[in-house]
Amino acid sequence: MVNDKQVKLLRQKRMNGKTQEAAASAANMTARTARKWEKGPLPSQTKRERGWRTREDPFEGVWDEVVVPLLESDKDSRLQAASVLGELQRREPDRFIDGQVRTLQRRMRDWRAVSGPARPVYFEQEHPPGREAAFDFTHCTSLEVTIAATEFPHLLFVLRLSFSKWTWVDLAFGETYEAVVTGLQGALWDLGASPQVVRHDNLSAATHELKRSSGRALNKRFADVLAHYDLRSTRINPGESHENGVVEKANDLVKSALHQALLLRGHRDFPTVDTYMAFVHEVVERSFNLPATERLATERQHLRALPPTPVPNFTVHTPTVRCWSTIRVGGRAYSVPSRLIGHEVTVHQHADVLEVFYKDRLVETMERLRGDEQVRIDYRHVIWSLVKKPGAFARYRHREELFPSLTFRLAYDALTRWHGERADIEYVRVLHLAASTLESAVAEALAGLLSGGERFDYVALKNLVQPKATTVPDIRIPAPDLAAYDRLLGGVR
Questions:
Q1: What is the CATH topology of the domain spanning 132-300?
Q2: Of 298, 318, 465, 467, which is most buried by a Cβ count within 10 Å?
């Protein structure tokens, strides 16, 4: 059967001066067939529409009576053929089979094309070069990435230039102000230039609610960041993510490319976060930025120069360390070294870490709390006082924070079974041992004792972690009297 494509190729070859035999060979047909189709209508134009059925209609008697009313009431075209077939099977169990779902799908598709409700129209946009970049956060749980065999819940900050489709990604753990500024500045400085406009949704890190109009407006600190780069902000209407289609599409494409690359890689585990992000950047560069090279070169002619320096990508807090050896930052509690109690400290809250300064000296760095976490207590900050007051452990408000790992929790439960109320004293001493030696060594010793089922206490554990040194006797041997040897030799003569 000759198709339109073959005939068009035949006629093109003939117009270019090829012989009938050569043109027929190029179009994969015989010379006799070529003579037939060298002029006249195309094969598709000679076909007559069939006006009869070749097989019995399986939905006769139910299509107009049952299916069409269902389709007419489905104003959003969400009803699926499988559901309709299930309803027909419920009404007439012996008539319809699962294998008829494809036929029903085609019938429903054709009905909707002719008589169905209007479908939403997407309006293709023209993006002038250098005008706009759009950014958003996207959750990456679906990638199922692990770090050192541990689950790694995270987000990616995605920014895309609307004209060239140049794409930048950065790691994030929440849609915070610091994550927005870090991602935005990372993209601009990696690009080495700035567009005129950034488009984004109404995330609370960048906007706040207007009480009178119930709308959203930029908050001051994010507006200051945009002013630093002479950027204008355009925002979508709340809940209308399709209005930010450039970056919404980029989110899907980035995660799809990463998913495919992970499948080719063969596994989804990475030794470190840095290794994972190097993988992400390599995939984005290969999949999106290299194909956009020519369009980016065009867009660079319209981008603007950056200011001399970036803005700080952290928020400054100045809490006073309370008697609990804790500070409150962003409504959450963190422990700090007890020597700072009563002093005011300066905290730089970054997207992922907190830096604590005293008199411009960095004294502590800790991970920023995420999600529903409200408290982070490092037992090393408080154990030196707790070991002197072990009775405080029983009702300590943040007692659960004093179990560095599951091994320590299991050890405490075992001590409770064996030692009753004295378990608190024994466990506090165990923590003190971990703080004064190596936590990993103590955890390893605890794991060994627990697996062996042996009853133990702090002393037994300490003997494993810090065995007593063997006493070496102090033996003093006086220097020999060599004159005695001379006398012996003299006697022999």
A1: Nucleotidyltransferase; domain 5 (3.30.420)
A2: 465
